[in-house]
Amino acid sequence: MGEYWLARYSWVDEEISGFAFIKEVNADLFSGAWWMDEDVAEMPNSPPETQGVLMTLERLEGAVTPAWAEEFFAQADQLE
Q1: For residue 7, what are the contacts with CB-CB under 8 A and spacing of at least 6?
Q2: Which of 30, 46, 58, 67 has the most crowded Cβ, counting Cβ within 10 A?
Q3: How many Cβ atoms are within 10 Å of 52's Cβ, its own excluded?
Q4: Cα-atom radius of gyration of the chain, to the nearest Å?
Q5: For 1-80, where are the E strands, in sequence order?
Q6: Is 46 in contact with 1 (CB distance < 8 Å)?
Q7: Residues 57, 31: contact at Cβ < 8 Å?
Q8: pTM score, whole prediction
């Protein structure tokens, strides 16, 4: 994948899934795009030619993880 990270996603209660290609800008900032699985014929090895949905992920200094997210992570850990 070179300089990109590949991430897969799937909604918990619906049949929605896809993937993202994400690039590290610096230790606190990532940028990339995501696509639905239905947007491509097969899983690509690099960002597709078609424009995905652009995204930016930024670490917020001092941010606190919400309780609902901590509960979700705890439940996910029990599935392993």
Answers
A1: 19, 20, 21, 22, 34
A2: 30
A3: 18
A4: 15
A5: 4-10, 17-26, 29-36, 53-58
A6: yes
A7: yes
A8: 0.72
Both structure tokens of 33? 């795009």
The pLDDT profile of the chain, 80 residues, written as one tens digit per residue, is 468 999 999 988 899 999 999 999 999 999 999 999 998 888 888 888 888 999 999 999 999 999 999 999 999 888 76
> DSSP 3-state assignment of 73?
helix
46-50 own/partner pairs: CB under 8 Å, 24+ apart? 46/1, 46/2, 46/4, 46/21, 47/4, 47/21
Q: Give the whole-angstrom CA distance, residue 28 versus residue 17.
A: 26
Look up tokens 């509960």; give the residue: 71
Q: What is the pLDDT of residue 46?
A: 87
Q: What single-letter amino acid sits at 70?
A: E
